[in-house]
């Protein structure tokens, strides 16, 4: 997987994009954390997803649906979430396939820094 394109769609190789974050490197921005979370969903990495969640909203357990195939991430909009910010919003659309049918998850996610690390706080799903 290390030389393959990153599932987040950045155009970079996994080892240059989300791989280091999955190995413990801090995300520099809210968008970087969002991309790494999409990649973790695509790769079935529930441990990373839980670790990237804000401690106040993190689920006690996380079971991923292995019948979903995550295909594509589109960043729609961002508010703050930069290297010098303490919070930010990332709006995205994530395409996935379930039961042979294509679906889109459209969400505005909120991110905050906890002890200097970006964490996913929560999100509002759009229909």
Automatic annotation (TrEMBL):
Give start and end of each YchJ-like middle NTF2-like domain. 29-123
InterPro entries listed in its UniProt record: SEC_C_motif, YchJ-like, YchJ-like_M
PANTHER family registered for this protein in UniProt: ADENYLATE CYCLASE-ASSOCIATED CAP C-TERMINAL DOMAIN-CONTAINING PROTEIN (PTHR33747:SF1), UPF0225 PROTEIN SCO1677 (PTHR33747)
Q: Which family does it belong to?
A: Belongs to the UPF0225 family.
Protein name stated in the entry? UPF0225 protein FR943_09495
């Amino acid at each position: 997987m290390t030389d393959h394109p990153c599932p987040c769609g950045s155009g970079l190789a996994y080892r240059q994009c989300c791989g280091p974050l999955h190995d413990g490197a801090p995300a520099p921005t809210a968008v970087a954390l969002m991309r790494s979370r999409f990649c973790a969903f695509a790769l079935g990495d529930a441990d990373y997803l839980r670790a990237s969640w804000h401690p106040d909203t993190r689920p006690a357990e996380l079971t991923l649906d292995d019948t979903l195939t995550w295909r594509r991430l589109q960043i729609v909009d961002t508010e703050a979430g930069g290297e010098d910010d303490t919070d930010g919003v990332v709006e995205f659309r994530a395409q996935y396939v379930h039961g042979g049918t294509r679906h889109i998850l459209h969400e505005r996610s909120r991110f905050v820094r906890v002890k200097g690390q970006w964490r996913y706080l929560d999100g509002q799903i759009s229909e």
